[in-house]
Target: Peroxisomal multifunctional enzyme type 2
Amino acid sequence: MNFSGRVALITGAGNGLGRVYALQFAERGAAVVVNDLGGDMKGGGASSRPADQVVNEIRSKGGRAVANYDSVEFGERLVATAIKSFGRIDIVVNNAGILRDKSFARISDEDWDIIHKVHMLGAFKVTRAAWPYMKEQKYGKVIMVSSPSGIYGNFGQANYSAAKLGLVGLSNTLAKEGAKYNIHCNAIAPTAGSRLLATVMPQDMIDALKPEYISPLVLYLTHESCEETGGLFELAAGWISKNRWQNSAGAFVAKKNLETGEVHMTPEDVRDSWDQITDFSNPEYRTSQAEFQPKLMSCIEALQTGKFPTSDSGFTWSYT
Ligand code: NAI
Model:
């Protein structure tokens, strides 16, 4: 797969995963904006060194790259660097990240805000700045970097996990809004050895988790041959899997009093239907709210007519 003629902006590309993405995009012909604020992993300080080093590495191998040292919260400056240097922007990988791990009650306002500023606001600002160019050229590939901590929660990462799952929501909506402009957006939830992970894993495991096992998916998802959009992928150590939402078929919990015709629904009704509400033996997988419409309409009809759904329509009735 070749990226000649494409311009890729990788945020936080001075270290870790972002550095490997930048090197590999450049190796395959893309012109790369290597963005990095160059601070510490808690969001303090700044330095031009990490971005410069990666740019030098790319150039020494004959690739095309420029550095940008702005924080992602000034997304328009990053995109301006791409436009000024290379005249377009095709690919955005929202990779920049920091950690402020603390147990929930100890998270300060600042710990909360800075995590959201770098991960959520940063991805929003960078992608929003790139969006008009992508719309205009009817081509764009965006990656949001989420985390297993966001999907499942993780002790000590309430701020980080909230922001990381927020990025999945952002990605899902951008996939929908971008569809008619040929802009694709996907989210990844990697696990890889880097300075961030070094805070939570022993060294021998970190050594076994190479960023080179993450980058191939990022390159594939952002290649012009890939039509995937709105996906979420978990990956680590050579393994890649797609993640999706699953609903139980659910229960129609409202009940009808056959004598009075009154429909009612109480906490006790919820309790009595609990096994069925939480029964995943007949699951549903939705990728849009629209896919819930038929079921919603049949529920509304049931409430209006008193003709409650039968088990054929995926519900179980309850009459009193
Ligand atoms: P890293 O710390 O090696 O690299 C992150 C880079 O982002 C650093 O070079 C840092 O200077 C830069 N950065 C931080 N704040 C910035 C800002 N405001 N503006 C511009 N650049 C900024 O971390 P790593 O592990 O490579 O992480 C990359 C991304 O992957 C992050 O979003 C992280 O949350 C995510 N991730 C990483 C996992 C892992 O296992 N390493 C697990 C799940 C998610």
